[in-house]
C-alpha cells in the first residue's frame, strides 16, 4: 500500500499526464496539498523533495515548487553516463524562475529602449549596478570604465587585436588555456608566447624573462580557477606578477570569470594590487548564471575606453537591451548574491569529494591539479601516455572527460592531460567516476609499459 507521500507523487504525475500541470507551471502549495491529503506538511515536503531529486521539479525560495521544463530527447542525460566533460553550470541549480521574473520586469521597464540603439558600452544603469557589485570582489571602478560585453570572450577577442598604449605586439598566455582564446590568437595570427601553468602555478622567474626579452602587449591569465587546471594564484603571486608588469611596461588581462565562487575571503584579484590602471579586468556570468545570456563585463584603463568602444560598436553595435535590463534587476534585487552563496557551497562540497577521490584512487604515476576549485581540474598522465587513448576508452564505458591537447598553442602542445569538470555531475557519482578513471589509467599504463 502506498504511503501518503507516494500518493502525492502519483497525483502529481496524474495531473501532468492529464495536462493539468504543464512544464514551467507552479505546483500546488505545500499547505494546499497537506489539506487535500489530510497529512502533515512534512509529508508533502518529502514528496516534493523526492521529485526534486529526480530533477522533475525545482524550488524557488518564497515562491514554491515548479515543474521542470521538458527537454529535447537528444539533451536528456543517460543516467548511466558519468559526465566530467560538460563544463556549463548545472541546469538544476540555475535560477530560471527568478530570472524569468526579472526579464518580465525588464520588458516593462525598458520597452521603449528596445526599439532604438543603445550605448555600445552598455546601459548606464547596469554599469552603475556592476560598479557596486564589483566592490564585493575588491574591484573598485567607476561606471565609465566598465563595458558590458557578450560574454568575457568578446572582450578578450577585441583586446587581442586592439593597439595598446605600450606599442607592443605580442601576447603572453597561460598554457594550457581555454579553446576560445586559443582561437582568437591563431585566427588573427598573433605571435603568442606561452608560459606553463602547472599544479603549482607558473614560473615567475621565467615570466620576468619573457616580459624583459619580448615585446609583450599583455599577459592573459585566469587568476582564479584557471581553465583547465583549476589553479588559483595566491595573493603573493598576484602582487609579484603586477610588479613585473609595472617594471617592464606590460598590461595584464585578468580573467576572473569565476571569482564569485572563491570562498577565501582574503583572496583578492590582481586588479586591487595595481594603482596604475595597468590591469584590464574581465568577468563573465556564463559559468555562474545562465550561459545563454552571453553577458560579461570588462574594466578598462581610461586610455583604452575610447578605442575599445569603437571596436565594440563595429562588432555588434550594442549588447541586447533586454538581457542587460534583466541582469540589472537581478543584481539590484539581491537575488544574484543569494544564488552565488548557494553555488559556492555546492561546489565546495563537490570539490572536497573530488580531492579525496583523487587521493584515494589515482595511481602514483599520475598527478592532478585544481581539485580545490570545484569546477575544473586536470589529471596529468606520464609523458609517454596519450590522453586520446584514455578518453576513447572511458567513453566506451560511459565516462566522459575532455582531452586537453587542443587547449594548447600548437608549439606548446602536450598530449598527456585530461580535463575534468564537476559542475554537471551529481556528488554521489564523483567517487565512482574517479575510481573507474583510475582503473582505466592502470590498465593503460600496463599496455604502454
Automatic annotation (TrEMBL):
InterPro entries: Aminotransferase_I/II_large (IPR004839), HTH_trans_reg/aminotransferase (IPR051446), PyrdxlP-dep_Trfase (IPR015424), PyrdxlP-dep_Trfase_major (IPR015421), PyrdxlP-dep_Trfase_small (IPR015422), Tscrpt_reg_HTH_GntR (IPR000524), WH-like_DNA-bd_sf (IPR036388), WH_DNA-bd_sf (IPR036390). Its cofactor is pyridoxal 5'-phosphate. Gene3D superfamilies: Aspartate Aminotransferase, domain 1, Type I PLP-dependent aspartate aminotransferase-like (Major domain), Winged helix-like DNA-binding domain superfamily/Winged helix DNA-binding domain. Keywords: Aminotransferase, DNA-binding, Pyridoxal phosphate, Transcription, Transcription regulation, Transferase. SUPFAM superfamilies: PLP-dependent transferases, Winged helix' DNA-binding domain. In the C-terminal section; belongs to the class-I pyridoxal-phosphate-dependent aminotransferase family. Residues 2-70 form the HTH gntR-type domain. It comes from Psychrobacillus lasiicapitis. Pfam families: Aminotran_1_2, GntR. It comes from the Bacteria. One of its GO terms (molecular function) is DNA binding. This is PLP-dependent aminotransferase family protein.
Amino acid at each position: 500500500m502506498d504511503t501518503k507521500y507516494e500518493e502525492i507523487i502519483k497525483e502529481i504525475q496524474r495531473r501532468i499526464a492529464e495536462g493539468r500541470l504543464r512544464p514551467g507551471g507552479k505546483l500546488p502549495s505545500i499547505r494546499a496539498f497537506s489539506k487535500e491529503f489530510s497529512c502533515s506538511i512534512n509529508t508533502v515536503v518529502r514528496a516534493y523533495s523526492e521529485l526534486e531529486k529526480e530533477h522533475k521539479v525545482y524550488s524557488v525560495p518564497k515562491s514554491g515548487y515548479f515543474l521542470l521544463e521538458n527537454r529535447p530527447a537528444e539533451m536528456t542525460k543517460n543516467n548511466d553516463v558519468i559526465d566530467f566533460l560538460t563544463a556549463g553550470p548545472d541546469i538544476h541549480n540555475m535560477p530560471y524562475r527568478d530570472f524569468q521574473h526579472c526579464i518580465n520586469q525588464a520588458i516593462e521597464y525598458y520597452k521603449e529602449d528596445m526599439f532604438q540603439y543603445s550605448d555600445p558600452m552598455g546601459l548606464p544603469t547596469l554599469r552603475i549596478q556592476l560598479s557596486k557589485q564589483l566592490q564585493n570582489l575588491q574591484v573598485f571602478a567607476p561606471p565609465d570604465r566598465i563595458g558590458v560585453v557578450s560574454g568575457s570572450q568578446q572582450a578578450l577577442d577585441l583586446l587581442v587585436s586592439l593597439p595598446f598604449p605600450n606599442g607592443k605586439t605580442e601576447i603572453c598566455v597561460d598554457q594550457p588555456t581555454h579553446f576560445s582564446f586559443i582561437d582568437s590568437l591563431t585566427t588573427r595570427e598573433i605571435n603568442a608566447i606561452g608560459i606553463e601553468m602547472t599544479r603549482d602555478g607558473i614560473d615567475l622567474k621565467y615570466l620576468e624573462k619573457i616580459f624583459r626579452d619580448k615585446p609583450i602587449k599583455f599577459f592573459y591569465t585566469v587568476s582564479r580557477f584557471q581553465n583547465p587546471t583549476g589553479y588559483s594564484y595566491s595573493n603573493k603571486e598576484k602582487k609579484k606578477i603586477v610588479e613585473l608588469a609595472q617594471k617592464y611596461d606590460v598590461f595584464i588581462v585578468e580573467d576572473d570569470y569565476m571569482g564569485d565562487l572563491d570562498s577565501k575571503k582574503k583572496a583578492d584579484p590582481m586588479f586591487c594590487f595595481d594603482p596604475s590602471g595597468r590591469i584590464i579586468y574581465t568577468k563573465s556570468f556564463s559559468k555562474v548564471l545562465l550561459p545563454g545570456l552571453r553577458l560579461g563585463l570588462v574594466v578598462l584603463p581610461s586610455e583604452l575606453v575610447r578605442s575599445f568602444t569603437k571596436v565594440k560598436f563595429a562588432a555588434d553595435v550594442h549588447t541586447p537591451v533586454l538581457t542587460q535590463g534583466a541582469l540589472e534587476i537581478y543584481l539590484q534585487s539581491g537575488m544574484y548574491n543569494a544564488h552565488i552563496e548557494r553555488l559556492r557551497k555546492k561546489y565546495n562540497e563537490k570539490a572536497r569529494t573530488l580531492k579525496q577521490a583523487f587521493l584515494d584512487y589515482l595511481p602514483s604515476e599520475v598527478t592532478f591539479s585544481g581539485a580545490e576549485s570545484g569546477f575544473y581540474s586536470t589529471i596529468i598522465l606520464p609523458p609517454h601516455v596519450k590522453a586520446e587513448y584514455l578518453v576513447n576508452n572511458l567513453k566506451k564505458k560511459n565516462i566522459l572527460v575532455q582531452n586537453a591537447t587542443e587547449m594548447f598553442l600548437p608549439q606548446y602542445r602536450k598530449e598527456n592531460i585530461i580535463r575534468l569538470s564537476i559542475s554537471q555531475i551529481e556528488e554521489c557519482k564523483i567517487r565512482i567516476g574517479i575510481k573507474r578513471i583510475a582503473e582505466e589509467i592502470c590498465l593503460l599504463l600496463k599496455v604502454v609499459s
